[in-house]
Amino acid sequence: MVRDFAEWLSSQGWVVRTDEDVVDIVAEKDGHLLYVEVKAATTVPDLDVDTAIGQLVRRMPSEADQSVSFALVVRDEPRSVDAAVRAPQRILDLLGMALYAVDEDGGVRQLFGRV
Prior knowledge:
By secondary structure, the chain is α/β, with parallel strands linked by helices.
């Protein structure tokens, strides 16, 4: 899924790095930085989504910075998507966080927010 989402970002004009220690993907475009955490197949989607959001929150700058945003990517299957969209949209807006799903064929769809 990391590869699929990274390829999708690249097709959207992002310069993508996947060898980062802090998150799964770091991408840059037009002076904008994007941190991405990917949660693939899981037996406990709710816990994994909450953990991923926490991982992204730890990467957030202490001061507001409109040039930095965040994305959580989950497998496009009902349990994972349901777990991701349970996060309150108001909070995701405040955090500048978008949600995406990647299907088994590598197709990407946006669930919430914009990158």
